[in-house]
């Protein structure tokens, strides 16, 4: 009966010796390597695959060694097996250590991200609570804020005279919304020319003032109200001195919502403080409900991006001449140069107090 070549002791020892020599040679040639390269990984993978292909009778498996080899071959086979395993372990040691470092680094990164997320959530919650408290505190002003409007913004007659400039943009329209209607000056103007309109304001005292004139005014937040409306239902949107009460995200959402709710061909007018005028900017912070000014070019850009067409910026409400530098008279080019510089200073320091960005849906 022919003896199975795999069970021949001499063949087994030759196979073991060849593998040990291969592992030792590989160890010596790779001692100077500081990192595991792709070739080294492929060599290890190939050796393990060769061992697995020998099947259940492989001399590398402890079960085979324990059941098939008889004394004195069994102790020798077990010793050689330990040697080979040590060599393989040494070969894989740097790879395993590298994997451990990778696992540790990954865990550290995930832990850091999680801590940052928790911190961000905490900050967000604090800001939301601060905003809620701020809103509550401002509501306590009640009728006092109405009185403040009278001083800071001007009388109702003055506001009416300024806002009459915008009436032509809404003539003949229906369902025009005045966002931040305040004391109702623009609603009164629209009513006088027969334009169907209504207004919203977050301040209940302002709403009371508007209703006292028989105007359709609702206490509501601008964004919440716009979100609740059906698309393409408004015949126009007028927003005077409101967008500066919003942060950047709210301002962008406001413009997007207004675009969605307007009928095609209808207009939006957004009037706000002109931050390119130093004098206007100094007045901006008199109102403690203001959040941040918005540059006219920025507002125009946002309206263009959302989809409004023919967007134009108009500057309004020039400060009085007594607040500007007066030109000087006299002969010579120096006088002309000085007066030109005065004009530049006047434009920068005492430019228009407000501006309006006007666009078509």
What is the element layout, followed by pairings?
Elements: H1 9-29, H2 38-52, H3 62-68, H4 73-139, H5 143-152, H6 156-163, E1 176-179, H7 185-192, E2 197-201, H8 204-212, E3 217-219, H9 222-228, E4 234-240, H10 248-261, E5 262-273, H11 278-284, H12 296-306, E6 309-316, H13 333-349, E7 354-360
Parallel strand pairs: 1-2, 1-4, 2-3, 4-5
Antiparallel strand pairs: 5-7, 6-7
Task: Please give a structural write-up.
The protein is an alpha/beta fold and 361 residues long. The chain has helices at residues 9-29, 38-52, 62-68, 73-139, 143-152, 156-163, 185-192, 204-212, 222-228, 248-261, 278-284, 296-306, 333-349, and strands at 176-179, 197-201, 217-219, 234-240, 262-273, 309-316, 354-360. It has 2 domains: 5-111; 144-360, 3-Layer(aba) Sandwich (Rossmann fold), CATH 3.40.50. The chain is built from 13 helices and 7 strands. It has a 7-stranded mixed β-sheet with strand order 3-2-1-4-5-7-6, sandwiched between helices. α10 links the parallel β4 and β5. α1 (9-29) crosses α4 (73-139) and α9 (222-228) runs parallel beside α10 (248-261). The protein is elongated. Residues 32-36 and 54-60 have low confidence and may be disordered.
């Amino acid at each position: 009966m022919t003896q199975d070549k795999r069970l021949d002791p001499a063949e087994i020892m030759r196979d073991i010796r060849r593998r040990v020599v291969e592992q030792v040679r590989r160890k010596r040639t790779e001692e100077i390597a500081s990192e595991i390269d792709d070739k080294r990984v492929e060599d290890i993978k190939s050796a393990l695959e060769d061992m697995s292909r020998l099947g259940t009778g492989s001399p590398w498996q402890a079960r085979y060694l324990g059941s098939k080899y008889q004394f004195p071959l069994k102790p020798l086979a077990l010793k050689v097996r330990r040697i080979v395993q040590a060599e393989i372990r040494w070969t894989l040691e740097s790879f395993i250590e590298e994997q451990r470092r990778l696992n540790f680094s990954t865990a550290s990164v995930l832990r850091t991200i999680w801590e940052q997320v928790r911190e961000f959530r905490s900050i967000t919650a604090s800001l939301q609570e601060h905003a809620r408290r701020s809103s509550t505190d401002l509501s306590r002003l009640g009728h006092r804020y109405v009185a403040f409007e009278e001083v800071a913004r001007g009388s109702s007659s003055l506001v009416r005279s300024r806002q009459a400039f915008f009436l032509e943009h809404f003539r003949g329209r229906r369902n025009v919304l005045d966002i931040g209607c305040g004391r109702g000056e623009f609603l009164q103007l629209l009513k006088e020319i027969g334009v169907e309109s209504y207004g919203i304001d977050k301040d209940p005292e302002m709403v009371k003032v508007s209703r006292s004139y028989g105007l359709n005014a609702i206490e509501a937040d601008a964004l919440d109200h716009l979100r609740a409306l059906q698309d393409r239902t408004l015949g126009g949107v007028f927003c005077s001195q409101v967008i500066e009460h919003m942060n950047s995200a709210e301002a962008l959402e406001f413009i997007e919502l207004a675009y969605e709710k307007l009928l095609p061909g209808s207009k939006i007018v957004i009037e706000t403080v002109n931050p390119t005028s130093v004098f206007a900017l100094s007045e901006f912070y008199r109102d403690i409900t203001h959040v941040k000014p918005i540059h006219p070019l920025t507002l125009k850009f946002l309206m263009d991006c959302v989809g409004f067409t023919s967007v134009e910026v108009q500057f309004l409400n020039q400060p009085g001449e007594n607040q500007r530098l007066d030109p000087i008279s006299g002969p010579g080019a120096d006088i002309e140069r000085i007066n030109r510089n005065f004009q530049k200073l006047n434009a920068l320091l005492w430019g228009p107090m407000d501006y309006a960005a006007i666009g078509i849906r």
